[in-house]
């Protein structure tokens, strides 16, 4: 599902939006990094809206999801297990949610409403699902790559489906780093990799947030014109658990 910014809205609007302030439940504590620096709200989903847009009950009904990330330093690229404190995804019952004001030091963004439309996505030719059919960089895979669908111009903010990687496939990265393996040359040679690899396909894209210097009035950039990717295990999505979301930055 492609999520497009539309127009400015109230900072505390109970809609799917970029920026603004989070709508959360009682007992909410603003998420911070280990050093106490507050994370920033990237956006909020109204789950009923996304379910309607995509035509499936993928997200918990009557809920809001708030996505936080360390935008000030972008220190958490998801490459080490210790990066887990650089983001948070918080689910709240829509009926009891109320706005939380950002603490001092939190980077805030204007609120921009969003709308979604269902699109067909295809894996890139170096994804394991395609390499299992055609080896990468062979004539067949190069022909496939030219046939991949183009959603049209503009930045690609996407919920679910296949991601648009800036560097390489990410399913295995999520599986390794959440099992304690750093994403380094040595980490990829860890003897546990073959065993862990068998469950890598259980990860799925939750939200891909593109660099956007013009369309949001927000002007955010991930890495060097890259993208921010929120990933979730299929079993966690099925039960509406967002505590183990992993984030990778490529750019």
Structure described in brief:
This protein is α+β, with helices and mostly antiparallel strands and 251 residues long.
Report on this structure.
The chain is α+β, with helices and mostly antiparallel strands. It has a single domain (2-249), classed as YwqG-like (Hypothetical protein YwqG fold), CATH 2.30.320. Helix content is 17%, strand content 25%. The chain has seven helices and twelve strands. It has a six-stranded antiparallel sheet, with helices on one face. The longest helix has 9 residues, at 139-147. The chain is globular, with a radius of gyration of 18 Å.
- Mean pLDDT across all residues, rounded? 91
Structural class: alpha+beta
**Which H/E pattern describes the elements?**
EEEEHEEEEHHEHHHEEHE
Mind telling me the C-alpha Rg? 18 Å
Shape: globular
Distance between the termini: 22 Å
Name the CATH superfamily assignment. Answer: YwqG-like
The tally of domains stands at: 1
What is the percent of helical residues? 10-25%
Uncertain regions: pLDDT < 50 for 5+ in a row?
Answer: none
Number of strands: 12
CATH fold assignment? Hypothetical protein YwqG fold
Regarding CATH, which class?
Answer: Mainly Beta
CATH architecture title: Roll
Q: How many distinct helices? A: 7
Beta-strand residue percentage: 15-25%
For the largest beta-sheet, the strand count, sense and barrel status come to: 6 strands, antiparallel
Lateral arrangement of strands in the main beta sheet = 1-8-2-4-5-6
């Amino acid at each position: 599902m492609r999520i497009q910014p539309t127009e400015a809205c109230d900072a505390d609007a109970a809609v799917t939006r970029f920026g603004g302030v989070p709508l959360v439940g009682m007992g909410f504590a603003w998420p911070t990094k280990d050093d106490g620096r507050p994370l920033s709200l990237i956006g909020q989903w109204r789950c009923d809206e996304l379910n309607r847009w995509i035509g499936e009950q993928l997200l918990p009904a009557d809920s809001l999801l708030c996505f936080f990330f360390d935008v000030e330093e972008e220190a958490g690229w998801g490459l080490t297990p210790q990066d887990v404190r650089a983001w948070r995804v918080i689910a709240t019952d829509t009926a009891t949610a109320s706005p939380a004001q950002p603490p001092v030091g939190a980077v805030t963004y204007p609120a921009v409403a969003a709308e979604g439309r269902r699109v067909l996505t295809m894996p890139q030719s170096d994804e394991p699902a395609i390499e299992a059919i055609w080896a990468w960089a062979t004539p067949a895979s190069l022909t496939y790559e030219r046939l991949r669908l183009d959603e049209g111009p503009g930045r690609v903010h996407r919920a679910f489906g296949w991601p648009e990687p800036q560097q390489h496939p990410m399913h295995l990265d999520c599986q390794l780093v959440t099992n304690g393996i750093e994403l380094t040359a040595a980490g990829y040679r860890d003897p546990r990799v073959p065993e862990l690899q068998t469950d890598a396909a259980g990860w799925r894209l939750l939200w891909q947030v593109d660099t956007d210097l013009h369309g949001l009035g927000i002007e955010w950039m991930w890495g060097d014109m890259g993208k921010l990717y929120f990933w979730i295990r299929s079993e966690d999505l099925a039960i509406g658990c967002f505590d183990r979301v992993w984030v990778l930055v490529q750019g």
